[in-house]
């Protein structure tokens, strides 16, 4: 069984946080950049990859992709 995962401390200064917040609220920045900014801001508030993914509607299911045949299985 896998052990507990440790939270990674994300050191973001106030100026950088303000910039990330502006990008996260932007309607003119590329969507990928906006989504990444939202993830960083959310992770800073709650350092849990699971919580951030759940809040943003991002799902991580490597076992379903592997079993569906989309990823090659290593034997």
Task: Please describe what this structure looks like.
With 75 residues, the chain is mostly helical. Helix content is 55%, strand content 0%. It is built from 4 helices and no strands. It has helices at 14-25, 31-45, 49-56, 62-67. 0% of the residues are buried.
Short note summarizing the structure:
By secondary structure, this protein is mainly alpha-helical.
What class would the helix/strand composition place it in? mainly alpha
Low-confidence stretches: none
| CA-based gyration radius | 16 Å
Strand-and-helix sequence, N→C?
HHHH
Work out the number of β strands: 0
Number of helices: 4
Main sheet: strands, sense, barrel: none
How much helical structure, as a percent, in the residues?
40-55%
Write the layout of secondary structure elements.
Elements lengths: L13 H12 L5 H15 L3 H8 L5 H6 L8
Helix pairs in contact: 1-2, 2-3
Any key phrases for this structure?
75 residues, mainly alpha
């Amino acid at each position: 069984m896998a052990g507990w995962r440790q939270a990674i401390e994300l050191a973001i200064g106030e100026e950088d946080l303000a910039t990330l917040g502006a990008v996260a609220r932007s309607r003119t920045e590329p969507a990928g950049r906006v989504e990444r900014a939202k993830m960083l801001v959310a992770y800073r508030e709650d350092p849990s990859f699971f919580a951030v993914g759940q809040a943003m509607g991002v799902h991580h299911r490597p076992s379903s992709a592997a079993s569906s045949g989309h990823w090659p299985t290593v034997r």
